[in-house]
Amino acid sequence: MYEFLLEILTRGVMQPALEQPEMNQGLLRRCFDFVEELYDGADAYRAGNVYFTVLECLLDELRYLENAIPYLHGASRARVSAMLRTYAVEGHKRGLPPPRTARRHAS
């Protein structure tokens, strides 16, 4: 699982997608939904794999983190927020802001 997540998902798909000037929102949404599905309610082994191979890799470059923020949700978003506070990441020492909720237009 470790090698698949790191080499295929993170380095092969997510990081290149997060580098693009015009990001493929559908692809990134599916990737982060998959990550959330793996992470939420996972046992220690699986949660650790996701943490070290996907979530922590968002810190490889600040643009990965900044571009990933809109797609992070649930338990994985909470874990990244805690990680940012723990590591005192410049600009994110208080963690992530609350996720934006879609506004509904009155009809």
Q: What are the salient characteristics of this protein?
A:
5 helices, 107 residues, 62% helix, mainly alpha
Question: What is the total tally of β strands?
Answer: 0
Biggest sheet character: none
The number of helical elements comes to: 5
Query: How widely separated are the two ends?
Result: 47 Å
The residue fraction in helices comes out at 55-70%
Low-confidence stretches: 102-107
Approximately how much beta-strand content do the residues carry? under 5%
**Shape type:** globular
Q: Could you tell me the mean pLDDT? A: 90
Rg value? 14 Å
Q: What is the string of SSEs from the N terminus onward?
A: HHHHH
| Helix and strand composition category | mainly alpha
Q: What report would you give on this structure?
A:
This protein has 107 residues and is mainly alpha-helical. The protein contains five helices and no strands. The chain has helices at residues 2-19, 25-39, 44-55, 62-68, 74-87. Helix 1 (2-19) packs parallel to helix 3. The chain starts with a helix and ends in a 20-residue tail after the last helix.
